[in-house]
Design brief:
mainly alpha
Length: about 100
């Protein structure tokens, strides 16, 4: 899987987990579904392509302010749990090869 593909899978996973724990129910709520679509679209249009740094290290902030706040809430909640939820992705992020999709 490509770096962008991995990042897309990770951010989608994180939003699904966040929504399930914060909003209840097995399906994404409308707001989390929209946030997922937005995040995946931003990854698709990243000018860095496969050499994309983590968003927190990027000079270009392509998220609108409201969406940036929403994704930060997701990252703050799910990030500390990633070691247990997705240890391989957590280790990739720490090592820097799979960099976080958005932070």
């Amino acid at each position: 899987m490509s770096s962008i593909g991995r990042q897309k899978a990770t951010v989608a996973f994180m939003i699904r987990y966040y929504c399930r724990k914060k909003h209840g129910g097995p399906e994404l709520c409308d707001a989390c579904g929209e946030l997922t679509r937005y995040a995946l679209a931003r990854l698709d249009s990243c000018p860095h392509g496969e050499r994309k740094p983590s968003c927190s290290r990027c000079a270009i902030h392509c998220y609108a302010p409201e969406r940036r706040r929403a994704i930060k809430d997701v990252m703050r909640f799910v990030g500390p749990r990633m070691l247990y939820l997705a240890p391989l992705e957590f280790m990739r992020h720490l090592r820097g090869s799979g960099r976080s999709a958005v932070s």
